[in-house]
């Protein structure tokens, strides 16, 4: 059976790291005798340049008829002054909505060898291993109206959710906690926001369905502080779209670099999309020095969640760990005793380890 994978390289380092992930999947294909069929489509800035829209229909159709999607990253200074419907990020929000990718799973686990690469103290991050479950298709990034008012002198953005949208992400988080260490931290701003009050009510009501999971509620501002002062208290964190966006970049500090953090975006019943947590990194784009590990670990998540290839996914994760333990790293990680390699070299080391 052939597994159809759509590649959406996007912009900046997105295109550099996605071909690294493809090389890794080809190594897996050889070793485990699996067939992957790849096709590439435009999204983001490159799609604006080639098709006049950040999300061409043919890209959406290809994703819908695939078995899984790998996405690099979108955006860059070239398009920063475009009107909002011609911004690369619109492509990203559009594909999440089109595939109904409501659940974004972001595992954050530091490698032992890289503990000192984090600006945080080793004894604080030692043993941290958490999963951020972020709602991805609702909230402020999608709510309407979102516009300038009063001749540009006032603005409105809307944080809207339905009960059903909250329930499905909270269920996903409880189920994720059941597969891990059975502790769920729900992050909200229930002392201020009406949306957070309903969110908290739903979490409370759902506890009965998952009696093996312990639950606590933390306000988002306190959660931001705890994440870097006492990260080991967390197992699974569930939160709405924007809070999750912010907290997951913050959590990347535990791993030493945003370039280490993979993610899976899942639908209830449909194609999954896998992408690194980082963006297109215009400051290093074109230099060939991007860290491909976040993208490669995203491909491992794809094998696990979309193709049920647990052994193959584990093989990728183990290979990454082997190379990290050999003290090789890309330039984004601060590691004085390490050996600095570029994107291609890092990819080849991981291929060899597989
Ligand atoms: P960014 O994540 O692209 O970069 C932040 C910093 O981390 C930069 O210094 C960058 O060099 C570094 N970095 C990120 N990934 C790296 C990697 N794999 N290897 C080495 N260093 C890495 O975020 P920034 O700079 O805020 O945004 C740049 C562009 O990316 C913007 O246009 C933004 O809208 C877009 N963006 C796209 C996302 C996506 O496609 N999912 C997510 C976040 C931002
Ligand atoms: Mg972000």
From TrEMBL:
Pathway: Amino-acid biosynthesis; L-leucine biosynthesis; L-leucine from 3-methyl-2-oxobutanoate: step 3/4
PROSITE patterns listed in its UniProt record: IDH_IMDH (PS00470)
Keyword Magnesium tagged: yes
Binding positions (Mg(2+)): 221, 245, 249
Isopropylmalate dehydrogenase-like domain segment(s): 4-350
Record-level GO BP terms: L-leucine biosynthetic process
Similarity comment text for this entry: Belongs to the isocitrate and isopropylmalate dehydrogenases family. LeuB type 1 subfamily.
Name of the protein in question: 3-isopropylmalate dehydrogenase
Organism expressing this protein natively: Gracilibacillus salitolerans
């Amino acid at each position: 059976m052939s597994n159809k994978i759509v590649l959406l390289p996007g912009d900046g380092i997105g295109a550099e790291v996605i071909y690294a992930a493809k090389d890794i999947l080809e190594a897996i294909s050889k070793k485990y005798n699996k067939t992957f069929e790849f096709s590439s489509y435009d999204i983001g800035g490159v799609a604006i340049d080639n098709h006049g829209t950040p999300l061409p229909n043919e890209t959406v159709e290809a994703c819908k008829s695939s078995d899984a999607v790998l996405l690099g990253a979108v955006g860059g200074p070239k398009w920063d002054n475009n009107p909002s419907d011609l911004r690369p990020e619109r492509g990203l929000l559009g594909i999440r909505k089109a595939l109904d990718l409501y659940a974004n799973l972001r595992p954050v686990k530091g490698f032992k060898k890289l503990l000192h690469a984090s600006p945080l103290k080793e004894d604080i991050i030692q043993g941290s291993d958490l999963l951020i479950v972020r709602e991805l298709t609702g909230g402020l990034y999608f709510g309407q109206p979102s516009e300038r008012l009063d001749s540009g002198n006032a603005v409105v953005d809307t944080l809207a959710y339905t009960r059903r949208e909250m329930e499905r992400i909270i269920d996903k988080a409880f189920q994720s906690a059941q597969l891990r260490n059975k502790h769920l931290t729900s992050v909200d701003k229930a002392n201020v926001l009406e949306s957070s009050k309903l969110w908290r009510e739903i979490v409370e009501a759902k506890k009965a369905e998952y009696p093996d999971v312990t639950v606590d509620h933390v306000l988002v501002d306190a959660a931001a502080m705890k994440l870097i002062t006492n990260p080991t208290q967390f197992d699974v964190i569930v939160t709405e779209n924007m809070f999750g966006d912010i907290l997951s970049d913050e959590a990347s500090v535990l791993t030493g670099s945003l370039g280490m953090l993979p993610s899976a975006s899942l639908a209830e019943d449909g194609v999954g999309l896998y992408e690194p947590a980082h963006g297109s990194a215009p400051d290093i784009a074109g230099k060939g020095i991007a860290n491909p590990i976040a993208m490669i670990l995203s491909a491992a998540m794809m094998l696990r969640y979309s193709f049920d290839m647990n052994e193959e996914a584990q093989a990728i994760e183990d290979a990454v760990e082997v190379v990290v333990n050999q003290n090789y790293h890309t330039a984004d990680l601060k590691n004085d005793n390490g050996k600095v390699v570029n994107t291609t070299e890092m990819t080849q080391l991981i291929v060899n380890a597989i």
